[in-house]
């Protein structure tokens, strides 16, 4: 049904920095999706199998968690949410084995505390084969919301739906019996100066072509005309509608979605999409119900999401030697780091580094004496563009080496490097000095 639950794991690459040498070793070897993992929670769930299964509703227990890409956002920031159903309350209701990649999950995450509301999430059409009567596999769904209030915000898993496209188009909706479910994730938002606090939510995260979805919005300009529109990646579709925001800046309107390539829905003020005067996209999936004509065969394929990973060229770097009594800059270059982002989602990534003090023969050189000048190149054709971090001190608190921003569709391959300079005090005792530099990709 979906990928293995996304956990917040870090790549750590330790580097042994010396006045004459810099050795790099792997402190971890896990590819990681960006984000902070939530706590697994259990909640009672009421699932309704498809009518063709001929079985009654199922009251069971769902185990799920919610992760986010930022646990300390500012008001106005967009937070990416991943809702992972670890164990679904429902199972394959028939004796018929289901093939791979025919399930599309959708759902909602409930916000509580300083900010209330819901986040619409949707997952890819991706699953392993499911034997007849077997439990549904784990799956993940993603969506975004804009932080509108400072304070502690809780995120709880909510209702979800399992749509299968095999022989028949069938849905298995599962609702939380006693909402809200226990909180799986908590973020702490701080005050900011938001350029845009507009937000939207959908009555459903999926539907057949030609069906209407209710779009509700808040924090728009009172009395403004708001356009509701479908999006296919970065492109607006022909499916649009208009509503008028009330005196409180809220609205509720219906958008009929016909375009089968739709991946999300937006709402905006003005004649065309403007991120400063709009909200979304909220994830939305159009069910493929196109009948296969007689004598024809329907062909499908799946683009599988990959991982966020990094590798580096070599495991040692020699920094230049300096003279006792003179000191000065001991320089070199960080081994080239290659970052590959093949997740295919909306989240960008950040590569940071921090270093310990340099220790030597009865003395040390402070970590704050190491500085770097980052550089970053993007491979042609990559959806994202790499941004090098600022030149300056690395230190024990750390600094950004490179990053890519969040976007509608992110990913690509990137080459990252940095010039290194260690400011050695003039009368530092002779000998070899070393420290540990850790690079973390999130």
UniProtKB/TrEMBL annotation:
<feature type="signal peptide">
    <location>
        <begin position="1"/>
        <end position="31"/>
    </location>
</feature>
<protein>
    <recommendedName>
        <fullName>Beta-xylosidase</fullName>
    </recommendedName>
</protein>
<keyword id="KW-0732">Signal</keyword>
